[in-house]
Amino acid sequence: MGEPDKDGGLRAQSERARADFQTAADDVLALLEQAREHAGLLAAHEGEPAPLRRAEDGRA
Known about the structure:
Blueprint: H1 10-46, H2 51-56
């Protein structure tokens, strides 16, 4: 048997860090999606094509 971890368990810390990172990544993706939606709404309000559509058309 190995020695018990003296720091509270590196594996447990690693799993918590991985979960925290995944949560942060999910939050960033949600914010990016909101920003894309808001940019589209703003562009529609101003009568312009949405920024994403302009980029796809090569007019970014």
